[in-house]
Automatic annotation (TrEMBL):
Protein name: Protein disulfide-isomerase
Signal peptide: 1-32
Catalytic activity, as annotated: Catalyzes the rearrangement of -S-S- bonds in proteins
GO molecular function: protein disulfide isomerase activity
Length: 500
């Protein structure tokens, strides 16, 4: 459960959809608004509709969301094309910002708009979609999801058609289509079919690249970059899945304005490895030198659990600010070890300094940095301002009952909550045992004990109790009632005795 707020927009390249199998015609009539092909669902007809479908796509959107507005005509166009598919593929939408649909949004763990799902087997199976956001991409992606998880390659012509020179394709070569290796390959293909294309064959001679005499079992991953193909022979499910996810990534992921690379960027940030990010102006005279030296470093340290991203500062200034740094510090290299106290950076780095700096990191010689705003000189407002350096003292060491909000200055819902939180703080201003505080989560690091996946997120720490996340309504009355229920009343009683 989480605090009941409508969600903020999220970038189109990280829009999620869920997966597929064979689509059967619905057994109950489903109708869209006349002239529209996208079916409108809400709390009153959602379950009844979905349970009757073997395959249905559902978008959660918000009317005010700019990304949703941009996506809507593409989604409608795709729905129009797919309505003529045999059998028809139904695309639906739910207004996730509607109060009446909040429970639906919570059940689907919606964190942003637009978010799409492919729901299979009457709602029993759901899988993330990482396909493109344009109409043609949606159509092609969904059609591919309707077939088997892996396609048999029977001829050179099949292989030439199947192995896309612009995308990643994974092909299993087997002496026969049976046994544990084949079963595990199909299992991985089913699990990852929303992200990659899988095929299988009995004859490696049909494939365009790689050793043609192998009989298998072997997995050959084709890609349009770096070494163009990689072979792998460990068919344990975990090892095979890890291989696919890592080998399908470029040695250096490029983050610029080209949308064709945004899928790789999304995967880069999803992987659990240490992230090395170099921010430089792609149009600068030094770019070629940075590009060359950075790729040399990536090749040198390949296999050491490092992922490398090269970002155009003109496109990714927001990412730099996320780390509490500034664009004028570029060329800038950052290491994020997915740990609060394991982030490192070097501003104004030179191309020849990249490899030595990484060597220092690997040798444990670099000093990590923590993002924190300065401690406020005055802090006498009803809602106290917390920063990273004071968070522990305010929440855990003050001996008070503390409600802390994690917010983002750009978040519309945080802005709407601000006056409500102010009213809550004013209502407790004569209670010395209650603190209402807030922390800018974009300007401060957040300890792992706080799980902040969206904004605003609020936690309450009773004076002598455990930390608990607030998941109620965003109203003054609901928040006050929650505090009164969860507060440690023993210190309140002790204060009353002292007054007597």
């Amino acid at each position: 459960m989480r605090m009941v707020f409508p969600m903020e927009c999220k970038c189109l390249f990280s829009v999620l959809v869920l997966f597929s199998s064979l689509l059967a015609l619905c057994t109950v009539p489903i109708s869209a608004v006349e002239g529209e092909f996208v079916v409108t669902l809400d709390y009153s007809n959602f379950t009844e509709t979905v349970v009757k479908q073997d395959f249905i796509v559902v978008e959660f959107y918000a009317p005010w969301c700019g990304h949703c507005q941009q996506f809507a005509p593409e989604y409608e166009k795709a729905a129009s094309v797919l309505s003529s598919h045999d059998p028809p593929i139904i695309l639906a939408k739910v207004n996730g910002d509607d109060v009446a649909n909040r429970q639906l949004a919570q059940e689907f763990d919606i964190k942003g708009f637009p978010t799409l799902f492919i729901v299979k087997d009457g709602g029993k199976k759901v899988q993330e979609y990482n396909g493109p956001p344009d109409a043609d991409g949606i159509v092609n992606y969904l059609k591919r999801q309707l077939g088997p998880a892996s396609t048999e390659i029977k001829s050179s012509e099949d292989a030439a058609t199947f192995i896309d020179e612009k995308g990643v394709v994974i092909v299993g070569v087997f002496p026969d289509f049976s046994g544990d290796e084949f079963d595990n390959f199909i299992s991985i293909a089913e699990n990852l079919r929303s992200e990659y294309v899988f095929g299988h064959t009995l004859d490696a001679k049909l494939l365009p690249r790689g050793e043609s005499s192998v009989k298998g079992p072997i997995v050959r991953l084709f890609k349009p970059f770096d070494e163009l193909y990689v072979d792998f022979q460990d068919f344990k499910v975990d090892a095979l899945e890890k291989f696919v996810k890592n080998a399908a990534m470029p040695l250096v992921t490029i983050f610029d304005s080209d949308p064709s690379g945004h899928d790789y960027v999304a995967k880069f940030f999803d992987l659990p490895n240490v992230k090395v990010m170099l921010f430089v102006e792609f149009s600068s005279e030094e770019f070629d030198a940075f590009n060359s030296k950075y790729r040399d470093a990536a090749e040198l340290y390949k296999g050491k659990n490092l992922g490398f991203l090269l970002a155009d500062v003109n496109v990714t200034e927001g990412a730099i600010e996320y780390y509490g740094l500034k664009a004028d510090q570029t060329p800038l290299i950052i290491i994020d070890n997915n740990d609060l106290e394991s982030k490192y950076f070097e501003a104004k780095i030179k191309p020849d300094q990249i490899a030595p700096w990484l060597e220092e990191y690997l040798d444990g010689k670099l000093k990590p940095f923590i993002k924190s705003q300065p401690i406020p000189e005055t802090n006498d407002g009803p809602v106290k301002v917390a920063v990273f350096e004071t968070l522990e003292e305010i929440v855990f060491n003050s001996g008070k009952n503390v409600l802390i909000e994690f917010y983002a200055p750009w978040c519309g819902h945080c802005k709407r909550l601000a006056p409500i939180l102010e009213e809550v703080a004013v209502s407790f201003q004569n209670d010395p045992d209650i603190i209402i505080a807030k922390l800018d989560a974009t300007a401060n690091d957040i300890p792992k004990k706080f799980k902040v996946e969206g904004f605003p997120t609020m936690y309450f720490k009773p004076a002598n109790g455990e930390l608990v996340q607030y998941d109620g309504d965003a109203t003054k009355e609901a928040i006050i009632d929650f505090i009164k229920e969860k507060r440690d009343k023993s210190i309140q009683e002790e204060s009353a005795r002292d007054e007597l």
